[in-house]
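Researcher: Can you fold this with iron/sulfur cluster in place?
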Amino acid sequence: MIFHKAKGIWIDGRKSMSKTLPLREYLNPQYVYIPLLQQASPLKRVVEVGADVTIGQVVALREGFGAIPIHASVSGKVTAVKKVWHASGRMVDAIEIQNDFQNRMDDSIRPEADIPGLTSGQLIEKMRLAGLSGLGGAGFPTYVKYQAKCPFEVIIVNAVECEPYLTCDYMITMAYPEKLLKGLSYFMRAAGVKRGVVAFKNYNTHIREALEPLLPAYPGIEIFETKDIYPAGWEKYIVQQITGKNYVGLPGEAGAIVDNAASTIVFCDMVEKNIPLISRVITISGEGIKNPQNFFVPLGTPVKDLIALCGGYADGLDPAKAWYIAGGPMTGRAILIDELIVNDTLGALIVQPMPEERNHPACLGCGRCADVCPVYLSPTEIKRAAEAKDAAAVKELNTQKCMQCGLCSYVCPSHIEISDAVGKAKDLLKKGA
Ligand code: SF4
Ligand code: SF4
């Protein structure tokens, strides 16, 4: 059993900052950059510099386990292969496409002729051909989950979005509630299950108001409201709350598949119009941004364009001294500059003034980090064991169960980055494995 009773704490979500302005489309950046990396897998480029490409044309391939095609998100000319900053915190090669602003579509993008007749196998093949991956940050190819030989009982759409500042899932759900339910019904058909659940936080009454009137047209689909605690969006927590079952490895052990809200909405267009994964919604927020908001953009859009559309940086903030976080502040990655491109896993860029240099006092032994840990770990003991390079003790302390939620660092009165220390201990285990 992975945990006995779900626990978490309320944290200040700062979400109203980016909910004030409506979701904004920015469909025509001058250049997009398609990174030749998906999750940790390098991609094989299949277009040459100088090639003309259409929207939806395959430009790269992920090969091996989880093989999927990667598509051009604008039409135009491949002008270079160059290094760009990626959400992983690394510089990676990317295909640069100069937009011709003609929005020429690949022939493969066309309305589906027989939606009711699509079989489970055909729906799963559509996920693969479209290059659908988890837009909630995991980036895992979706079709692999649906190919698993598990006795599935329920598909859960995760619209909980418990990371502070992030509102991209909220915004896309509010913009396309019908597509969310249609996408979920297609997922249910693909898995051969009769039950679908949309999970969101209990304070998101607007989501309930948008979905409830539509539910009678979608038999088997229900809504589920989680408590307003962090990490209520954690997959194991949601599955336990909805199925009453725990699992160790994958949600399939509990008869569940969990898909992100944005992935579910784009799947609707993949089924009905054969549009591959070429766009997403991203939140640009934080105290360092003048007018935080959400954008619907082609993948590969430079975030610098979006910061400019937000009116730039907050007054008085020197961009060279800002703190950039790719993803949310609890689980995201600090990066050095705003030269980042939007990829499938990037739900947000948070910009904040650089925190003041802190004079770290020593650990107070207060135990708060252990009290909040959702998987009942003892972060200080793990840190000590890792510093002593005692791999046996690190293993004995169940370090592998850490999900890097960041709560232990969040509550630490001494501002010790204790979750990083646990992450390093996990690395020690991997090296010793
Ligand atoms: S919360 Fe911070 S100060 Fe308290 S025991 Fe954990 S690491 Fe030490
Ligand atoms: S980061 Fe790991 S150790 Fe810290 S609270 Fe989360 S699960 Fe527990």
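Model: Folded with iron/sulfur cluster in place. The domain at 109-273 is CATH 3.40.50.11540 (Rossmann fold).
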